[in-house]
Amino acid sequence: MSTAISGQAGNRQSRIDTRLNDIGWGLLLVLTGVIWLLPDRRVPEGAWLLGVAGILLGLNVVRYSLHMKADGFSIVLGLLALSAALTQLLQADVPLLAIGLIVIGISLIARPLLNGNSHSGNMVQRS
To answer: How far apart are CA 92 and CA 89, in angstroms?
Structure first.
């Protein structure tokens, strides 16, 4: 019986996650369309990046509040978008693309190391 209940809970969380992803994409598309429609002089530098950061980080706050696993990749992208927006608003010259690539690369390298033996069975072992 507990397997059926846990299966239903997993299915429910999967549906919620799909809805959140759909809402996120919808918000990103609406944000992009609205900014494209507005005259350039009415849109401050970094407004789109700030909106993207708010959407990506906001969706993860909702996931967390629903006791769902947050998406680490979208958190990193949201933080990068927030950093880029702030540097544009403050007119600072920071190499965010380079820093972002380094952070993403380190996270991809560190993930298997931090997860322990999650993929150790796939590695070839030499005698």
So the answer is: 8
Q: What is the pTM of this model?
A: 0.71
- Per-residue pLDDT tens for 86-107? 888 888 887 877 887 888 888 8
Q: Angle, to 10 degrees, between the axis of helix 47-65 and the axis of helix 72-89?
A: 150
What integer pLDDT is reported at residue 2 of this predicted model?
53
**End-to-end Cα, the chain, rounded Å:** 45
pLDDT band at 6 (very low <50, low <70, confident <90, very high): low
Helix, coil or strand: residue 91: coil
HSE-CB for 91 with a 13 A CA cutoff: 1
Residue that the structure tokens 């507990």 belong to: 2
Closest Cα partner for 77 from 47, 55, 109, 45?
55
Domain boundaries, the chain: 2-120
Q: Which residue type sits at 50?
A: L
Residue with tokens 């933080």: 79
State the Cα angle at 79 between 76 and 80, rounded to 5°. Answer: 85
